[in-house]
């Protein structure tokens, strides 16, 4: 139980986070023990790549963007054929679409300011009026990018699909993903539980109190059902409470 708590504090997020740097970090568990502890755990993360082979605002599909990116990396000397990618490779689609977001927001801001006989070139960091125009333009920006549908919340956060994975036999397997905008959960029915039963996760927090997180996912087919319908049918039942004993 102590292992997972320590992992959170150490900030290990790579796919093999449970195997690396054990000695350097003062962790006394063996690699095999770490593998056993990690087996079956669930993770969530924002999807980085468009899941459909659609032409995006750039004129490329996500796959075409990936091929162009890989070609550029090979020319820079990266041995991607042996999985030698630079830091931040997975976030490349987000960075690319972020540039498009800024460009589109600036274009929209320029049009609005022009109607008021103002210019974006007049902007200073103390100019709240133009800053509000930029914020409004960014907040209303929406397009299909190589990372998926690009849109922003009222707080300015990127809205993205959330991917759900589980470690099965030492590898992360995709279980499904959730679309916040459409309130839609796509589930692939690939989950596996040790012993064939849904586990009750237990670990010790910083205060050494045991925290139980019961998790239950039914095997009912629920692919591409709106989440509110799933709740009514009780097909998805994540415990909303974490009990500290």
UniProtKB/TrEMBL annotation:
SUPFAM superfamilies: Periplasmic binding protein-like I (SSF53822). One of its GO terms (biological process) is gamma-aminobutyric acid signaling pathway. It is found in: Membrane. It holds the Pfam family ANF_receptor. Keywords: G-protein coupled receptor, Glycoprotein, Membrane, Receptor, Transducer, Transmembrane, Transmembrane helix. One of its GO terms (cellular component) is G protein-coupled receptor heterodimeric complex. GO terms for molecular function: G protein-coupled GABA receptor activity. Residues 88-168 form the Receptor ligand binding region domain. This is Receptor ligand binding region domain-containing protein. It comes from Glossina palpalis gambiensis.
